[in-house]
Amino acid sequence: MTLRCDKQTVGKRLLAAFREAGAEEVAPDILLPAESLLDLYGEDIRARAYVTSDPIRGEMMLRPDFTVPVVQAHMENGAEPARYCYLGEVFRKQDMGDTRPETPRDNEYLQAGFELFSHETGADAEVFALFYRLLSPYGARAETGDMGLLLDAVRGLPLPAPRRDALLHHIWRAGRFQQLLIRFSAETRPRDFPQSAASWTGLRSATEMQARIDRLQADAGSPPLPAVWTERLKRLFAVRAPASEAVVMLRELALEWPEIAGAVERIAIRFDKIARAGVAPEQVVFDASHGRTTMEYYDGFTFSFMAGDRGWPPIASGGRYDALTSVLGKGRRIPAVGGIIRPGLLAELEAA
């Protein structure tokens, strides 16, 4: 019980800091309609969230995060700039593949969060600097990335649109992305689909199956991706250094890869703004692969704060999610950036 009081105390302290930064406190429902979450995440969310059925409201989920309901509420009623903060429980199923006893995998844990909807160019720096000031007393290590850089890199590959779209779709799934990259880098041969009197469509219609066959046959004629591009991707994904050094590395790569030049300059400008907000860039790591496996709806700047070498998940994480506002806003799009902190982990650090 003492630990829970500590969590709440830390959470309320964070919430007060967010309010002082100009945020309006909101309290989204704990039970959310499953439809929007399934549309956003796909069926994979069922493996991580708690799903139930209501005879009137239909399929529902215990709140897996705050960002989606906050964005939905803002897109319906909000004007920008707008700042929101919240404190409450989220619910996630245990990861059965991780059996390390030192890794916290609570089914239910407390989140404190801050979301900023704004067209202002300094929004990323504002949110990051706020989190940095709150977490630096804990000795947290700051790491950042930029999904926009990776998305621009893939868009710049000399590939047919269907192959490029497949890589973009799986960029957050590193294993699947690598499998596709290997396949697209090799020669492909037309496949033979012999006629059969037996049923061959399964649960799909014959029209759907024929369309799939046509796509596979068309793809078989695509030339392989030249090795120079896989090498450039490898170099890009491997960039990890203090921010000032990373920008130099990225600018050198952009000389060979003009399609990423715009993203690289946006990253450089962002770190200039972060420095003006009081955070020294040499204290911040830039990792080009940051966020690829854990931050699926972020499409720009990403960040996380780690607690040393404890093997914990990030004590805080966040980033830019402009595309999410377009999906949930039914075409209306507002630039947005935010993040969450886990007060329970901060309480453990305070008690250590």
UniProtKB/TrEMBL annotation:
Keywords: Glycosyltransferase, Transferase. GO terms for biological process: histidyl-tRNA aminoacylation. Transmembrane segments: none annotated. GO terms for cellular component: cytoplasm. The lineage of its organism: Bacteria, Pseudomonadati, Pseudomonadota, Alphaproteobacteria, Rhodobacterales. It comes from the Bacteria. NCBIfam families: PRK12295.1-5 (NF008952). GO terms for molecular function: glycosyltransferase activity; histidine-tRNA ligase activity. Residues 9-338 form the Class II Histidinyl-tRNA synthetase (HisRS)-like catalytic core domain. It comes from Paracoccus onubensis. Gene3D superfamilies: Bira Bifunctional Protein, Domain 2. This is ATP phosphoribosyltransferase regulatory subunit. L-histidine binds at residues 65-67, 92, 111, 115, 292, 297-298. InterPro entries: aa-tRNA-synth_II/BPL/LPL (IPR045864), HisRS-like_core (IPR041715), HisRS/HisZ (IPR004516).
